[in-house]
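tokens incoming
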């Protein structure tokens, strides 16, 4: 089906509730970070809007949950086909509201669509078990059922992929959903909802409510307080995740929390340095460093520190910064002024404590863009653990290099954080690979690899990085509950 997706979403951006596009009493602007200009406006929703969405999801739940898994899978497959058919439009929408360069925006749409396809296929594989009976005439079995209504709350840095990664398994499992996208990037979520509507997903099964940062609590609190919401799936900051966990306790909701990170990236003396630089470039500078699995602390063995620094600076200094409208751009703008302020503060603190700027280190003015949130890709040398960037997630294009002398020291420093989302290391020593992999306190480990995300792999962390897993066969279980059936009198 062909239609002007971007025009439809930008010109008529309303909440998607019970299969209808509903306005709200107030609206707020969505800003293009590359230009600083308003791109569109969306509803600034409140309690009544959140309640309407929840009522619709609760009403739609019995029929959707009762559908055969194969039928739900067919809905998801039609949705996936429409996402792929509108790949270029969705990528353009991501670039305009989030700032991501075109190649990365296209890659995100394909990545998000992969979750829809994956869980369409997993929907028909939610197997149970037969347990050997303890006595003649008794049978025991286990079945899996949808948790119920799910509230999905998503971040701005991957506005298609993050919501698809939550919606797809929820719908595949037989759950219905109320979703609130981030205030910076609501248009991509509304576009996905439009395509779900066109795919024939029934009214009330998927509902999307937008809200500004000031109004977000009004929306989410409705869902937190209502016992009909049986699960919260959230990607965002650790502080907000802990708040959601506390507020969910009264109704004992299940939670999936993908929270902050502080990923270490370790380069040992025997590493292939060219491969390590390639891996770091992929992991660190994707989306301008605005990813939760971006390496924040780069530990390099003293024996190869200078050579690795030279190779990295050569690559980083050559990166082209610009808006997605520039086909040569490799790094786009930061999402907003607050992001630039944090990056600037981290660099200033590091330099005051002895770090050296090898390249970059300051905001950039990009001719003709009009935006004020571009930042030069940066490499800092001589970082240490007295600096803010060793303890706080910078969330920007800053590669801070820490020097280490031996494996024991590196592992102590790497695990010296309350976070545990992702970790990376490069070595050609097979014994060390197993030893380090087991010692890392993180949910995911990249071994001689910088690109670790996949719809087939379980994504998630430990410690203050949260719990629960998204993607893979494990991801469906997070939206299902286990029921035990015992049948007697069969002899």
């Amino acid at each position: 089906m062909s239609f002007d997706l971007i025009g439809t979403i930008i010109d008529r951006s309303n909440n998607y509730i019970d299969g209808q596009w509903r306005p709200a009493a107030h609206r707020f602007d969505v800003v293009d970070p590359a230009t600083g200009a308003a791109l569109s406006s969306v509803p600034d929703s409140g309690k009544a809007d959140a309640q309407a969405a929840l009522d619709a999801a609760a009403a739609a739940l019995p029929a959707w949950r009762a559908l055969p898994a194969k039928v739900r899978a067919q809905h998801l497959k039609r949705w996936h086909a429409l996402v792929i058919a509108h790949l270029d439009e969705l990528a353009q929408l991501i670039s305009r509201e989030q700032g991501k360069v075109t190649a990365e925006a296209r890659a995100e749409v394909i990545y998000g669509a992969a979750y829809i396809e994956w869980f369409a296929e997993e929907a028909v594989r939610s197997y149970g078990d037969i347990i050997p009976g303890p006595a003649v005439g008794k049978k025991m079995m286990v079945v899996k059922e949808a948790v119920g209504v799910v509230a999905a709350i998503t971040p701005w840095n991957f506005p298609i992929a993050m919501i698809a990664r939550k919606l797809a398994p929820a719908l595949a499992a037989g759950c219905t959903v109320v979703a609130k996208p981030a205030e910076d990037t609501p248009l991509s979520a509304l576009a996905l909802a439009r395509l779900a509507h066109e795919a024939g997903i029934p009214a009330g099964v998927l509902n999307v409510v937008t809200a500004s940062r000031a109004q977000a609590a009004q929306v989410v609190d409705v869902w937190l307080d209502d016992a009909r919401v049986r699960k919260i799936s959230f990607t965002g900051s650790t502080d907000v995740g802990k708040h959601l966990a506390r507020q969910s306790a009264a109704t004992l909701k299940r939670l999936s929390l993908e929270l902050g990170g502080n990923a270490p990236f370790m380069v040992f003396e025997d590493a292939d340095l060219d491969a390590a630089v390639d891996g770091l470039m992929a992991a660190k500078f994707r989306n301008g460093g605005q990813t939760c699995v971006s390496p924040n602390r780069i530990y390099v063995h003293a024996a190869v520190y200078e050579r690795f620094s030279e190779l990295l600076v050569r690559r980083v200094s050559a990166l082209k910064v610009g808006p997605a409208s520039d086909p040569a751009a490799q790094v786009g703008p930061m999402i907003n002024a607050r992001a630039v302020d944090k990056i600037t503060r981290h660099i200033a603190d590091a330099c005051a404590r002895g770090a050296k700027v090898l390249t970059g280190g300051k905001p950039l003015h990009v001719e003709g863009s009009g935006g004020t949130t571009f930042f030069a890709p940066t490499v800092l040398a001589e970082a240490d653990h007295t600096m803010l960037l060793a303890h706080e997630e910078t969330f920007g294009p800053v590669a801070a290099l820490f020097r280490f002398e031996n494996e024991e020291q590196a592992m102590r420093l790497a695990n010296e954080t309350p976070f545990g989302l992702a970790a990376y290391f490069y070595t050609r020593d097979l014994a060390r690979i197993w030893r380090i992999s087991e010692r890392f306190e993180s949910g995911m480990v990249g071994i001689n690899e910088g690109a670790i995300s996949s719809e087939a792999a379980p994504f998630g962390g430990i410690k203050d990085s949260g719990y629960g897993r998204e993607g893979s066969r494990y991801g469906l279980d997070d939206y299902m509950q286990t029921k035990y059936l015992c049948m007697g009198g069969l002899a």
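note: The chain has a mean pLDDT of 96.
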